[in-house]
Design a protein that fits this description.
The protein has 336 residues and is an alpha/beta fold. It is 40% helix and 20% strand. Strands 1, 2, 3, 4, 5, 6, 7, 8, 9 and 10 form a ten-stranded mixed beta sheet that branches. The protein is globular, with a radius of gyration of 28 Å. The termini are far apart.
């Protein structure tokens, strides 16, 4: 009897010791859970954002966005890289030379339609603001329509720009051959205003947000005007059969877009800008990048007016691109 009682006593003590050890393990686990960060780690690393030509809206927007990204993603190093425009931007992102960029929807559609390298990897993060086509001439010019450009020296944007795409299409819609019916001058918004001012151009095309600073500065020192683009041109663009052309729409440049200089509304063509990355970009970083783009609208909009048009309600519509999973995660998190 005594032996049995002794074994029972030892077993009871062993049980109490095991229970105590288990309690200590649980307490240590709770302490570790409390002290360690919960959830995914903050995005880190280095990214390149391909922007646009100096003095263009892409470049100015990118510079201001970089400031806010530095605040919201402190462990991410951001490098800006100037470019000729949408076409070059897409090639850079698709090849891995850049991680994020801005490009027009028509340029994206053409990149896909042409089967360019990496086209299937491109993803959208946000629809930003619209670009407005601006056909700029001297105030005393006899050019009053796209058809009047026949035989003239015309700035049509650089080879890698979205301006070149839409300028060629508009000329074609107006029954002009972009290579033979005008003298095309390959130049960007950083040089075309000076060329027009010094009568080395008769006109130039620009496609950008409103107002574009380079056009504003030209207007302040030289008498210019914007040539109306007949809404019938949009119908001509749509009839071209190109997939990219369906992203153009008729629009109006408001009378006050350039302050007191313009004075009258001008009919034109508009196309949406998209924030673009690839399916290889980290979801957490893309989510944070997209959040900053939306949250920075009002601050950046004070200096780049077109940024005020970034709207959470429409940002999700990034056709012809599928949404990146990180961007989709952001939009789900802010869905009412």
């Amino acid at each position: 009897m005594f032996a049995v009682l002794s074994r029972t006593g030892r077993g009871s003590r062993r049980g109490r010791l095991l229970q105590g050890a288990a309690a200590v393990v649980v307490l240590l686990g709770l302490l570790v859970w409390w002290l360690l960060p919960i959830g995914p780690s903050a995005p880190s690393g280095s990214i390149t954002f391909s922007t646009g030509v100096t003095s263009g809206v892409y470049q100015r927007y990118g510079s201001l966005l970089k400031e806010d990204l530095g605040r919201d993603l402190p462990d991410v190093s951001i490098q800006l890289k100037n470019s000729e425009g949408s076409q070059q931007n897409l090639a850079r992102v698709a090849s891995g030379e850049a991680d994020f960029t801005v490009a027009t929807a028509d340029a994206v559609a053409k990149y896909q339609e042409d089967g360019k390298p990496g086209a299937d990897r491109l993803r959208g993060c946000a629809r930003l603001y619209d670009d407005y086509v601006q056909l700029v001439v001297a105030k005393d010019s006899k050019i009053h329509s796209v058809a009047d450009l026949r035989g003239k020296k015309v700035g049509v944007g650089q080879e890698g720009s979205g301006v070149r795409l839409i300028a060629d299409r508009l000329l074609t819609a107006a029954k002009l051959d972009p290579k033979h019916d005008i003298t095309p001058v390959s130049a960007g918004i950083d040089t075309m205003p000076d060329l027009l001012e010094h009568r080395k151009l008769d006109a130039f095309f620009w496609s950008g947000g409103l107002p574009t600073r380079a056009v504003q500065l030209l207007w302040e020192r030289y008498d210019i005007r914007l040539v109306p683009l007949d809404p019938a041109l949009v119908a001509g663009l749509h009839d071209s059969g190109e997939a990219a052309s369906r992203y153009y729409r008729s629009a109006v440049i408001p009378a006050d877009a350039y302050g007191d200089a313009q004075k009258v509304p001008v009919s034109t063509v508009a196309v949406a800008n998209l924030l673009v990355t690839t399916d290889q970009m980290d979801a957490g970083l893309t989510e944070g990048f997209t959040r900053t783009v939306i949250d920075s609208r009002d601050r950046i909009g004070k200096q780049v007016h077109s940024a005020q048009l970034v709207d959470l309600r429409t940002a999700i519509y990034t056709a012809p691109l599928r949404l990146h999973e990180g961007a989709e995660r952001y939009y789900r998190s802010v869905k009412p």
